[in-house]
Amino acid sequence: MATLTFEQARQCVLGRLSAAKFQPNPEVVSLSEASGRVLAEPIASDRDYPALPRSVRDGFAVRSADLPGDLFVIGEVRAGEAFAGEVQPGQAVEIMTGAPVPRGADAVVMVEHCTVAGDHVQVPRTLAHGENVSARGSQARDEEVLLEPGARLGFAEVALLATVGRSSVSVYARPQVAILATGDEIVEVNETPLDYQIRNSNVESLAVQVRRAGGCPTILPIARDLYEPTRELAEHGLRFDLLLLSGGVSAGKYDLVERALADLGAEFFFDRVLIMPGQPLVFGKARGKFFFGLPGNPASTMVTFELFARAAVEILGGEKEPRFALLWSRLSQDFRQKTGLTRFLPANLNADGSRISPLPWQGSGDVPSLARANAFLVTEPDRESWAAGDWIRVLLR
Ligand code: AMP
Ligand code: MG
User: What are the residues whose beta carbons fall under 8 Å from the beta carbon of 259, sequence distance 6 or more?
Assistant: First the structure.
């Protein structure tokens, strides 16, 4: 089975998901429900924007050929109205930001650059044709496609929908994602664990991550480390658009996930990635559905979801270009690591993003440390040491 580097594994996931050409069903939602959804139709402009040449300044609408000069002010035009007349040579119209530039005028001189005396305005400078004017259609042309299907709708996209008069919009159905925790040691959140047991936190972090990626999570019952229940629950999970399993993918005697999936006819694309946390990580397809077998340690589950499964949920949700944005910041202290793996370590990014500090942690099971962190610092596999002040990549969480 394949062991991949971080980049290879990510390419593999993106490639497989895109090649599957999953077509989510469209559904119509109102503008107030559109946030975070993925567009299922092209959005075209309903007219030119702006529909008329518009002033971008408070000042005077003028004929640039008249300048410099002393101009006769024939009236004013405010935002929300149109000037009826036409500016003749030697004339100007007082104009407010957002108001349409009167016919005859081709530029706007800022009020700060003129001297007003009665019904005259003195303009001591020249202006280029079109200066301080937003030309008709300069932002968008009538019928021009402004958003393509596959765009995730954030606040600016929603503003655009409102601008072009769309009070409802067609978006893709959220992908249905099954979450299946495995393990004999796992108990439910409202149970009191014995010392050798642990509460089921992974399904909760995964549900949050799935929702954040635009998916709709369903948490399945815990699969005990027995072949039959693991296989049955995995089979059930493969009825969803995507199956996420937590735990049971290491080399231990009771790590049954791969065997159960293989017996369900799975094709495996990789089962190890050179990352930390999360080395044993299974990605494949069975019964026409993709699945990820995520390692059970909480940090591994969280990190491998963000690195790989998140993009899968986004693509299954119809998103064209899932983003994976690593930032850069400077280390607050010297830092060393062993080479060979791309590491994602809990860290704190300061308020203005200029410094990143690794946090002490006790390995992949250290949920308290993860909850204290607001980011992961990302190390390249071939570099051993960094000095305080060195640039390093950061994954926000
Ligand atoms: P595994 O990948 O199955 O070997 O699990 C590794 C470790 O992750 C286990 O020993 C648990 O401590 C922890 N773990 C596994 N599943 C969960 C879960 N659902 N919630 C919280 N911790 C888990
Ligand atoms: Mg286990």
Answer: 227
What is the 303 CA–ligand 2 centroid distance (Å)?
17
Q: Is 295 in the pocket of ligand 1 (CB under 6 A)?
A: yes
CA of 397 to the centre of ligand 2 (A): 25
The best mutation among 186, 257, 294 to test binding of ligand 1, ranked by most ligand atoms within 8 Å of the C-beta, falls on 186
Distance, CA of 12 to CA of 186 (rounded, Å): 31
Distance of CA 33 to the CA centre of its chain: 17
pTM: 0.93
296 lines ligand 1 (CB under 6 A): yes
Contact predicate 318/38, CB 8 Å:
yes
Q: What is the DSSP string of 27-82?
A: EEEEGGG-TT-BB-S-EE-SS-BSSS-EESSSEEEE-GGG-SEEEEEEEEE-TT--
| Token pair recorded at residue 29 | 């939602």
Give Cα 69 distance to the centre of its chain: 52
- Choose which residue among 203, 225, 230, 246 to substitute to test ligand 1 binding: the one with the highest number of ligand atoms within 8 A of its C-beta: 246
| Cα–Cα distance for residue pair 271/114, rounded to 1 Å | 71
Q: Write out the two tokens for 240.
A: 């969803």
* Distance in Å from the first CA to the final CA of the chain: 30
Nearest to 376 by CA among 323, 300, 311: 300
| Rg over CA atoms, the chain | 29
Question: What separation in Å is there between the alpha carbon of 364 and the centre of ligand 1?
Answer: 10
Q: What are phi and psi of 270, to 5 degrees?
A: -160, 160
Ligand nearest to C-alpha 280: 1
Chain-centroid distance of CA 364 in Å reads 26
Helical (H) or strand (E) element with 330: strand 327-331
Residue 27 has pLDDT above 90, yes or no: yes
* Residue 2: pLDDT band with limits 50, 70, 90: confident
**Strand, helix or coil at 296?**
coil
- Token readout for 275 is 């990352």
Q: Which of the four pLDDT bands, split at 50, 70 and 90, describes residue 110?
A: very high
Q: What single-letter DSSP state applies at residue 350?
A: -
Cis? peptide before 50, omega within 30° of 0: yes
